Amino acid sequence: MSINLKQNDLSHVVAADRHHVWHHLSQHKHYETADPRVFVEGRGLKLWDANGREYLDGVSGGVWTVNVGYGRESIANAVRDQLVKLNYYAGAAGNVPGALFAAKLIEKMPGLTRVYYSNSGSEANEKAYKMVRQIAARHHGGRKWKVLYRERDYHGTTIGTLATSGQPQRADQYGPYPDGFVMVPHCLEYRKQWDVENYGERAANAIEEVILREGPDTVGAIVLEPVTAGGGVITPPEGYWQRVQEICRKYDILLHIDEVVCGLGRTGTWFGYQQYDIQPDIVTMAKGVASGYAAISCTVTTERVFDMFKDTPQDGMSYFRDISTFGGCTAGPVAALENMRIIEDEGLLENTAMMGERTFANLRALMEKHKVIGDVRGKGLFCGAELVADRTTKEPLEEKLVQAVVADCLAQGVIIGATNRSLHGGLNNTLCLSPALVATSEDIDQITGAIDTALAKLSV
Ligand code: PMP
Fold it and tell me: Which of 118, 122, 127 should be mutated for ligand 1, with most atoms under 8 A from CB?
């Protein structure tokens, strides 16, 4: 059955949603007096809701996902053809799109060789943490089992990945958490923690301090977002990544880059880490891998990491003791293959870099006009504007005012985001833009124009 609704059926859909769907990240009290927004159709960056209202989506499906835009028939067709041929087989056996996508992906990731499939960003990161623990058990006498993570970064919603949440409001109320996950300071220069000239190097040295405090022989890996997403769209300062890499090599610590948001083109290169000329040991990705046309995530490793799961004379037969049931779905890799083809054939990396420049130029112009913009950050089509009540003190703008800007844009038919709601204050003050990589100059101008109009209404 395909779902083809007439306009008057849609009121039933909205009622069904209102009474029976438990929405993500939602305060449901709101729906006691208002209908939830239910989207019906999308094309490119455009969306239509159940009332027939049109929107320009400036956040690629809410959470930086639909990189190639809505309504891609070629992806739908590729998935359909694959599903009627073979939809699934799990475990040790392979499948055609899984093999072809892994090979294609690896072409874009020099130095990495192995792709482990699962379904969500959280799951991909959990796999990486399990790899680190198993490597510690097999090769380091149980030591080197700890994973460092960074303040303000986010890596997922499971208990294991929440143990690496650098955003306390996400993790509060779900503990206690497993041991062995240790936080390092964030590197956002706009909110300086050290008054030094070479901030990038200083922020990276803070990682070394934690390693020395914990004991280098207990630390197996560090997980970092290349550009922090939900924690405030944070581009690390000059020199940060080189120093991080040096530190990892010095103490034999695996560098795990979480590309769940940046992966597959968001920053204008295939991966965010490629903006910084570093060589990770583990890379995880999810959202943009198939642009939300199917669920797929990958934990990609070097051959050196992979080799650590091979037999040894000491412990005989060995392997990574993990499975993901839906890692055997073929819809994910076949959608991902077509997604990659689109990015390549349509020159979307180049477009992202170009449109990113335009977005930053527009935002910087808005900064001249609106004192409430304290900082503009990001890479490619992954842009943030931090809002402050006072530029000198950098006091974050009140959450309700940040939300008022988001709501005003929505009323103008433009969807933008703001970083996560915080119980601790200070995080939810960055407006986020992450339109699909097919965005045109007109789209960008419409999005930043809506922000301009919304900011003009703020009386700060
Ligand atoms: N890592 C990062 C950087 C993310 O932003 C997210 C999701 N917002 C995740 C991991 C978790 O991904 P998922 O929701 O697919 O589990």
Answer: 122
ipTM over 0.90: yes
| CA 168 / ligand 1 centre spacing (Å) | 15
Residue 117 sits in the same domain as residue 258: yes
CA distance 389 to 370: 11
CATH number reported for the structural domain that contains residue 53 in this entry: 3.90.1150.10
What's the pLDDT at 34?
A: 84
Res 29: pLDDT: 87
Are both 94 and 230 inside the same structural domain?
Answer: yes
Question: Which pLDDT value is given to residue 1?
Answer: 54
Pocket of ligand 1 (CB under 6 A): 63, 120-122, 125, 154-157, 225, 229-230, 258, 260-261, 286
pTM for this model (two decimals): 0.97
- CA 43/CA 443 separation, integer angstroms: 13
> Over the chain (460 residues), what is each successive 10-residue block's mean pLDDT?
68 89 88 89 97 96 97 98 96 94 98 98 98 95 96 97 94 95 97 95 98 98 97 96 98 98 98 97 98 98 96 75 94 98 98 98 98 97 96 92 96 94 69 98 98 91
In a domain, 7, yes or no: no
Q: Whose CA is nearest to atom 12 of ligand 1?
A: 121
In ligand 1, the atom with minimum distance to the C-alpha of 63 is 8
How far does the centroid of ligand 1 lie from the alpha carbon of residue 306, in Å?
24
Name the token pair of 353: 């870099």
- pLDDT for 257 equals 98
Identify whether residues 330 and 225 lie together within a single domain: yes
Nearest to 385 by CA among 264, 272, 235, 266: 235
Q: Are residues 104 and 61 in the same domain?
A: no
Q: What is the DSSP string of 209-251?
A: HHHHHH-GGGEEEEEE-SSB-TTT-BPPPTTHHHHHHHHHHHT
Please give the Cα distance from 421 to 426 (Å, whole number).
9
Ligand 1 centroid – CA 436 distance (Å): 18
CATH number of the domain where residue 315 is located: 3.40.640.10
Q: Domain range for residue 54? A: 37-66+348-456
- A 10 A CB-CB count for 279 gives 15
Tell me, what's the pLDDT at 26?
85
Ligand 1 centre distance from Cα of residue 122 (Å): 6
Q: How far is the CA of 154 from the centre of ligand 1 (A)?
A: 7
Q: Are residues 294 and 277 in the same domain?
A: yes
* Residue 313: inside a domain: yes
